[in-house]
Amino acid sequence: EETSCPPEKTPCKDFISTLPAREGWSQGQPLIQYKKYWFRPRMLEQILQAQDAFKPRADDILLATFPKCGTTWLKALTFTVINRSRYSFSGDHPLLTCHSHRLVPFIEIAHHRAAADFLETLPSPRLIATHMPMSLLPPGTSSSACRIVYLCRDPKDALVSMWKFHNSVDPGSAMDQLDKPFSMFADGFSMYGPFWDHCLEYWRESLARPNNVLFLKYEDIKSDPVQVVTKLAEFFGVPFTEEEEKSGVGEEVVRLCSFEMLAGLQVNQVGGVDIGHKKYISNSVFFRKGEVGDWANHMSEEMAEKLDCIVQEKLKGSGLSF
Ligand code: A3P
After folding, report:
1. CA distance 82 to 86
2. Are 183 and 304 a contacting pair, CB within 8 Å?
3. Where in this chain does the record put each Sulfotransferase domain (predicted)?
């Protein structure tokens, strides 16, 4: 089926060709700067199209993440929390037979049809995802009553995860050493980067509108997943009842969505996720290690200190730290 971005020239492509460009992580795929953020040309095209066509609804639930910060996990947890009265935790649960990315579509990544048209067909309340920075969300999205959950992660782990992911999905442009992606990331040049601006925009919004924007860190979910799941249920206006708490519903959600559980399922080991333009990413690539601190296995202490320093400086005074 056709995706939202035909390969021929479009006004969008003409516009993109006027923007600042620099070498990207993949051969033949420069990074293009649009309003301080860097994107691959096709991704930017899809973002611009989403800005034009996506119609926000007040009851939308939007999962926003910087890439490789746990999107797949957050999708699973949220889907399971809000649908907990529809499905039991075993047997018929959709997560057992569907990859998270199929259950929760991205706004800006076309699946089988033009993304915006497809999203229009979903019943309310819609559960949808994005990697877009807050300031680039389609008009009306952030000002609507919709609820946004943002997830980020220690940038050192995000970088290592992104590097490993890049090497898996684009072996032709694989970078054996971390040096090059490290210096690009540290200068803000990565898909959807700079990392710190992406985090800061959602962070500030979560402080200004706590009922609408919930800010989470991967590390916090790892250290107390049940507490985070409980918080999610409250945030969505469907808190766990006393009975649910007693029967350990939070624990069940966490168990079903755990790395070990999901990574081991057949559906997540075979097949791929359609990312538009007839490109697929193998389902298993979204499950690598699922640990906090894997950066230490790939990054020197010196690099770690340097990145920590840069990020600290960028986040200074915001109240956000990693
Ligand atoms: P690692 O590469 O550090 O292992 P995203 O979903 O945003 O693409 O992020 C992918 C990262 O989340 C990967 O990190 C992946 O292993 C991890 N991940 C995926 N599913 C997870 C789960 N159920 N629990 C914890 N981490 C998970």
Report:
1. 9
2. no
3. 59-319
ipTM of predicted complex: 0.99
Residue 3 has pLDDT above 90, yes or no: no
Q: Which residue is catalytic, options 99, 101, 111, 131?
A: 131
Secondary structure of 4-49 in HEC code, one letter for each residue: CCCCCCCHHHHHHCCCCEEEEEECCEEEEEECCEEECHHHHHHHHH
DSSP character at residue 171: G
Q: Does 245 contact ligand 1 (Cβ within 6 A)?
A: no
CA of 203 to the centre of ligand 1 (A): 21
Report which of 25, 103, 155 is spatially closest to residue 286, judged by C-alpha positions.
103
Which atom from ligand 1 is nearest to the alpha carbon of 161?
2
b/e per residue, 87-116, with b = 16+ CB within 10 A? bebeeebbbbebbbbbbbbbbbbbbeebbb
Looking from the CA of residue 75, the nearest atom of ligand 1 is: 6
277 is catalytic: no
- pLDDT, one tens digit per residue, over 97-114 is 999 999 999 999 865 456
pTM: 0.94
* Biggest alpha carbon–alpha carbon distance for the chain: 59
